Amino acid sequence: MNNERLQYGSDQSGLICGYLFTGRHAGKALHTTDVLQYLNQTQRLEPSHFLWLHFNLANASTEKWLRENSQSPEEFYESLHQGSRSTRIEHADQHLIAVINDVLHDFTFDPSEIATLWLNVGRDIMISARRKPLKSVDHLRNAVNAGEIFLSPMELLTHLLRDQADVLTGIVRDATAKIDEVEDHLLAERLSRKRANLGELRRLLVRLQRLLAPEPAALFRLLQKPPGWMADSDVHELRQSTEEFSVVLSDMASLQERIKLLQEEIAAHVGEQNSRSLFVLTIVTVLALPINITTGLMGMNVGGIPWGQNDFGFWIVVALVSLITVIGAWIARHFKNKD
Question: Is 110 helix (H, G, I), strand (E, B) or coil?
């Protein structure tokens, strides 16, 4: 087996990598000329053999090459240009058309780093295409290069779905660690920017759940009436992989609820701090009010200022202001303790 180094480029046809699977043997790497021989039936596939071809749609010649050399149904090409990219698997002309959303290879919790993988799965071929490097399909490619045995294109598809579930599990685990850190900061009363970070993380999880959750209706129809070439074991594996995927999505929904509760707690904490600060400011203003009023009145250049000619007039005013301030402080403290 050719354990070639993983790269994200493609040749002139847009092919990133191609493999021939021969039943009980590991996948054999193919070049474009070899792939053309099988697609044009110059070299026929044995009943237990099948191909996996992975393409880069960023290459402008990819779609044209596929239309000219593969027998993919028109629904596959339509899905490449549809605005709706929710995860789904549909049955079309004895083929399975799958639209799978995944995260980029160097995912950094940015909502813009979610991209789409399109698949066309038939009896003896699986064609996958993407515009950006994705994690799940790269894991599948690593498994093929490592010599893992695949007996049908459906095994490739179910392995890909499980890889995607593993990637999502890693995202949920990392998100949980971030939330734990925010909770630690909340308990230590060192919040800084963590509230904004929670909002970004929650929006990301909502978008992931919306895009990655398989459409139940399409999946139900497929499992009820699969293509004739699908074995019962393949249907069972597909159902099991979707159930595992549903568990991950459930964990993601629980994490969103946890973030929501944490945001509410942080908002209440911030509101309490603001109320405390406003109360202190009000007390300071009230305590400073007597001296401000007194100095304002005493500073007027009019006749009749009390104790203006008294040698102890200043100290009398100071005593009166101090007494009024002490009384005000006692009243404020009394009401604070009462609350």
Answer: coil
Confirm if 141 and 54 have CB atoms less than 8 A apart: yes
74: exposed, middle or buried (C-beta count within 10 Å: 0-12, 13-18, 19+)? exposed
Length of the chain: 339
Residue 197's nearest CA partner among 177, 167, 211 is 177
Q: Which residues contact residue 229 at a Cβ distance below 8 angstroms, ignoring those fewer than 6 apart?
A: 94, 122, 123
The pTM for the full model equals 0.70
- Looking at the chain, list the stretches that DSSP marks H as alpha helix, in order from N- to C-terminal side: 32-39, 62-69, 74-80, 135-145, 153-187, 194-212, 216-224, 232-298, 313-338
Q: Name residues whose C-beta falls within 8 Å of residue 164's C-beta, 6 or more positions apart in sequence.
A: 100, 102, 136, 212, 245
CATH superfamily of 15-268: CorA soluble domain-like (3.30.460.20)
d(CA 78, CA 71): 14
- Weakly modelled stretches of the chain, pLDDT under 70: 1-9, 42-45, 83-85, 189-196, 213-218, 301-303, 307-308, 335-339
**How far apart are the C-alpha atoms of 4 and 28, rounded to whole Å?**
11
How far apart (Å, rounded) are the C-alpha atoms in residues 198 and 260?
Answer: 9
CB 220 within 8 A of CB 238: no
